[in-house]
Amino acid sequence: NIICSIVFGDRFDYEDKKFLDLIDWIEENNRLQGSIQIQLYNFFPTVMDYLPGPHQKMIKNFEKVDKFTTDIVMEHQKTLDPTCPRDFIDSFLNKMEQEKGNHDSKFTVETLSRTTLDLFLAGTGTTSTTLRFAVQILHKYPEIVGNGNKQF
């Protein structure tokens, strides 16, 4: 939710169906990434597009996550107040407006959608993996936690 508030400008309720679906799609893709079919897909995407396997599910999940972020970007475009940016998306949209006449600009809706998706996926994946690892270490080595009264 911290990443969501920075990128999307809003937090999601932990019972929100859309948010829970999003987390499920991301977690499922993380699990699928280790399969041999996914590894083969990375080397032979054109051939693998025609074959069944977990890579097809991963592609569908990615498309759902992409649609989720694209929908938020489109909503931000409709409700943008250039004088009061709410988040990363609004700031990017403001920069897009500044670069409107520049045909070489990289500030496009497509770039915004991809960057938003990258920030969200990288932020949530890295953070959750780090926290999981930290909890595992604390569980394995409870003496690290100690009694809380030691002076350092």
UniProtKB/TrEMBL annotation:
| Gene3D superfamilies assigned | Cytochrome P450 (1.10.630.10)
What does the UniProt entry say about where the protein is found? Endoplasmic reticulum membrane; Microsome membrane
Q: Which GO terms describe its cellular component?
A: endoplasmic reticulum membrane
Which family does the entry's similarity section mention?
A: Belongs to the cytochrome P450 family.
Using the record, list the residue span of the signal peptide; answer none if the entry has no such feature: none
| Keyword line | Endoplasmic reticulum, Iron, Membrane, Metal-binding, Microsome, Monooxygenase, Oxidoreductase
GO terms (BP aspect): epoxygenase P450 pathway; xenobiotic metabolic process
Which PANTHER family has this protein been placed in?
CYTOCHROME P450 2E1, CYTOCHROME P450 508A4-RELATED
The upper taxonomy is: Eukaryota, Metazoa, Chordata, Craniata, Vertebrata
List the InterPro entries hit by this protein, alphabetically.
Cyt_P450, Cyt_P450_E_grp-I, Cyt_P450_sf, Cytochrome_P450_fam2
Listed name of the protein = unspecific monooxygenase
EC class name: oxidoreductase
